User: Fold this.
Amino acid sequence: MAGKDLCLFDIDGTLTPSRQTISPEMKDFLKELGKKATIGLVGGSDFCKIAEQMDEGEKIVEIYDYVFAENGLVAYKQGKLIGKESILDRIGEEKLQTFINFCLEYMSKLQLPVKRGNFIEFRSGLINVCPVGRSCSQKEREEFNAYDKVHNIRKEFVDTLLNKFPDFGLTYSIGGQISFDCFPIGWDKTYCLKYLQNEGFSNIHFFGDKTNEGGNDYELFNHEAVIGHTVTSPQDTIQQLTDIYYN
Assistant:
């Protein structure tokens, strides 16, 4: 892989529509791109969700050179697990429960167009907080996303957590349509670079859609070791890659 470019991809909004399955067109495109560059995936979701979204199941780690779940806190290279971090080990059970209890109390007072279930999702390296509930339908997901753009539900929630827990050493990242991630400072998507910067790549290209400040692609997009590309859709991702590698 040394000497080749690495193309590193966010998933939601970059390779797939948000929380939807990758298209056959995109799968075929990535297969061809793999002849020209090393392919890596870096998502905030857990491994199972990424595997489902990419429509490959557990064999995803054999198809793509690198798979970084939970921002790279769960890391695979060429089919093998090479790293795993734990937010529980980092901040401890007492702080974790205090934080989760506050989030649940805060969400109990929110009046939204709809509320469903699965408001807190504990992952290996982060906590995902979802005011509408992750069990909402696709239609309800899109309705909340539109509502959030007007009322800033997630941003105000994050601002509250920053003020409430300044000494917990946590940072927050808004991604996708309905939730945000909470994790120790430094455990954003740049975490995956610890596995990549000494691999001898000519360039590391990163493609993501949430590259504005506060978005979950922002830190990696702006890292000095990375050539960042902002995309607006999976179709735009294909177009930008075509311009780089085929024109």
Remarks:
- The chain has a mean pLDDT of 96.
- The longest helix spans residues 93-108.
- The first strand starts at residue 5 and ends at 9.
